[in-house]
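Fold this complex.
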Amino acid sequence: MKHKMIGKKGFILSLITLMLVLSACSSSNPSASSPVNSLSNEEKSATDKPNSNEKKVITLSVIKSTRFLELAKEKFEAANPTIKIEIKPSYTVPEVSGRITVARGGGINPVEVEKFVTTVNAELMNGNASDIIAVDELAYNKYAEKGLLTNLIDFMDKTNGFNQDDYFMNVLDALKNKDGLYALPYGVMTSVWFGNQERLAGLNLDPAKAWTWDEFEKKMKTLANDGSKDPLVRYLNPDKLLLEMVSKDMDKFLDVNEKKAKFQDQAFIDMLKQAKSFYDLKIISPLEQPKGPGKAIKMGESLGLKDALSLSEITTYSSLSFASMFYDKPLLYQAPTSEPKDGNSFESNMLLSINNKSENKKEAWSFLQFLISEEMQSSPELEGLPVNKKASQAQIDASAANKDMKLSPEFIEAAKELLPQLKRYSGLDPKIKKILIDETEPFFSGQKSAETVANSIQNKVSLYLEE
Amino acid sequence: MFLGKIGNLRRWVVRMIRSDGTHAAIFLIPSLVGVTIFFFLPFGIGFYYSLVDTPIDGKFVGIRNYVDLLGNNSFRRAIWNTFLFTVLCVPMNMLLSLLLASLLNGRVFGQRWFRIAFLSPLVIPVASIVLIWQIFFDLNGILNNWMNAWGVASKDWMEGGSALYIAIMIYVWKNVGYNMLLFLAGLQNIPIDHYEAARIDGAGRWRQWRSITLVYLTPTTFFVFIMSIINSFKVFRETYMLAGPYPHPSLYMLQHFMNNMFQQLDYQKMTSAAFMMATVIVMLVMILFMVERRFSRWL
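Structure:
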């Protein structure tokens, strides 16, 4: 009898232990973050204290610092002796190897990104996040809805030094979430096509006019039948083509505000099939390995490539010079979309937000404003096309004047229209981008049907959006 | 009179200090502090987060987060999947482990090695095993290679109805050894005299198993049942490593939801989901416990 009692007691005890374990399970996440918090807290107070008496410290959290930011910090500190800018990269390039681990898709290693996200999240929760945060890897729209980020529009209206006419407001307007602007790009990128006039001249194709993928396909087919053996479109891998197609038509497949994905639609399935057909029909074919030793060329020299079109990421105005390196007679063509659209879309490689809890919002904004000032935007270190009109004008004029770049007046005219035409933000959420790339791989390799792939993308993206 | 009362009080205090309970309490303090700091405190803070609207300077919104959560499609899918998984897995796991325990209870050839073999999933690091599964079930993996060799078309195992069965298989593989051990211990506690007595009374094997083995195994069975339910929630780790944060919809469990919410800094949804889950499990355990008590009294 006694034995049984003890057994029962043991049972009760084990049950209690179980419940404790259970309660620990379900709340382990907040506790897991607390050590990180306290640590960064200590670090922060340790670095803050010596300066806090004399200078205001503006902190800036980024995954990886850039030369543009370092330069801006230097210049800004020189101009404002009372403010110190502290750039806090979560990832520092190891000095020995000197190169960044670049993952597929061109981003930084996902592990580093995750580390950055966790750190920023922990700091935000603890109330001691940096004043300025790079948010392009964060689901910043969700953060903005939670009131964690400052609405930058308030500063743009009030600050007397901010004149909207100085900037490409079309770019900033495209980034608005409802009526607020929570993230500021200091440089933007867009993709266009370099066209080879020697091949395209007879096709009756107006470079300035918006065109569709169907027209693209038709024109390329016509070109394929002209008897020459030259390649049609310069090779780009399927991932890249698909992301280009999806991001240019993002509004068609994603409704972020309504939290709806439409990847199951026939339109997306058709798009997938069309993308694959470009490869099957040899409209896009792999590069042939050059015979003999390759030759190095200087700026201004032309490779005299024979392809008709090549997709090009315009990250700075100087990347336009690739056009004249590729072709003897280059022209700038609009990017095709599934149906004719007004304006082009853009991405940014860094979006900066101001922490809503920051005590130095004004100073933080003055630094952001400095980043988009004419002085900084004219810097050769700028990663992206400038959002400042004067700086943009100056750079185009410089490109036109640069005889080495060999750009025709027509080409320059088209380049001038690049920035004013940016009307849609096409930066895909990093999670959705990853789902798209991973899921379509078996489709392009012919192992799955377009319908299956579209279905599984739809399922995953919906899970993500509806969460 | 008054002095007498003080004397009483003093004697009472001394008795309290010298009592076992006090000693136990003193020895318990370190672990209680640990439990409070790492379990109860975060639990309380988590509860606070589930009642406000934003994590920083939030306003009190009562149960709105919980109401919102119940309307969330992904959450409902996660609940249904977790429920389905538990309902499918737990009975299967228990039956299988009981069967194995019964087989290994008697004198069997290589008994010791079999026991070790069934326990090995507990000690092998999950990450290394997941790697093998990934290679096995991948679209270009071993299984599809075999199927191609037999002339069957490849299939993406992790992206379809089969994904759930793979998860169930992993769960059973991982947990059957542990439960088998518990059942074995239970089986070995049954006095042999009972069987002998029953045999003398002319009971057959089936009758012996039903009236002696099963009855004596009841406490063990309850324990195994609860452990299986809890372990069924833990299969998240394997599925997460195998299929990532956004797996096939049939594999999307509650923990996927919570993990993703944590990544997106949505503490409101995360903590309210965690509390709902904890409440349900605690209630379930309480009910089971009550049933067990009734049952043993009836015994």
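The domain at 189-287+297-347+404-466 of chain A is CATH 3.40.190.10 (D-Maltodextrin-Binding Protein; domain 2).
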